[in-house]
Amino acid sequence: MSNLRAKTLDPVWETIYSKGHVVRYPYDSVVTFVFRNAPRDVDRSNVRILEVGSGTGNNLYFLAREGFDTFGIDGSVSAVEFAKNFLEENGLEAEIVVGNFTELPFLNDFFDLVIDRGSITCCGFKAGRQAIKEIARVLKPGGKFFFNPYSENHSSFASGSFGEDGVIENIKSGTMTDVGQICFYGKRQAIDALGINFIVENIQRVEITDVTTAANSVHSEWRIIASKVNLE
Length: 232
What we know:
By secondary structure, the protein is of the alpha/beta class.
């Protein structure tokens, strides 16, 4: 597991967060996923939602404010500390821990939803698959997973160098500069990463092209909703 850990907890994020990088507002893709897929036949306080790579707590703030039983995990001590303080200052509660995506410290079949908003894509391919296996373990059968890696169509994909386990390092252009290692997924790679534990319900490739210059920079990401299969 040590090799997986090395390609999961990129130390660049601790540096970024410790210097005061803060995201305060939830991502629209997360809001849409939650409102469309959270169970409707139970009280929200009984709907458990985990964000893998919860950063400074912007999405956790949204979840807790909406009354969901909220959990987060991140590899950055500074990010987790900020997120805890941020929610507490706003009178909200969530269980937020420092940890590794490939070893989730939660019980089997525990969560109704799991969110990955551009976090697993920062892991190597093998580590990403292990993280998704862990997500399958902690999700209830039929629970939904939002998987949001970056696409090979992204301009940053061709501007760096290949590192261990498929990560692109030393990215020089596009929107992914100064964020350490990134894995860019093709459609088949993204689907295969889900393994036998999930059924893909919806897959979108979302792209924004910046035509300010002749270079036409493209930001490209996958938004995949998958449900956990009951293999029993």
